Write a sequence for this structure.
């Protein structure tokens, strides 16, 4: 391993240059959310997924303090 700070920085610069040359940026494809499009709808009509969603909703509602449950303002989930 290089001993001086300059040697270490030089080595890092070389490694970054090599990575930039060989690696494609994560958002380089048209539409930065391609991964979302690839999995969108993957759980459609999956009863286990629906059960997990329902359990999550119930858990979040259970976390609301009692003093807020009587509040009718729109910021409190119903």
């Amino acid at each position: 391993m290089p001993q001086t700070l300059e040697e270490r920085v030089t080595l890092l610069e070389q490694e970054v240059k090599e990575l930039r040359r060989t690696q494609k940026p994560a958002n380089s494809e048209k539409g930065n959310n391609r991964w979302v499009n690839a999995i969108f709808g993957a759980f459609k009509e999956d009863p286990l997924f629906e059960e997990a969603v329902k359990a999550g909703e119930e858990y979040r509602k259970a976390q609301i303090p009692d003093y807020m449950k009587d509040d009718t303002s729109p910021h409190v989930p119903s």
Observations:
- The mean pLDDT is 84.
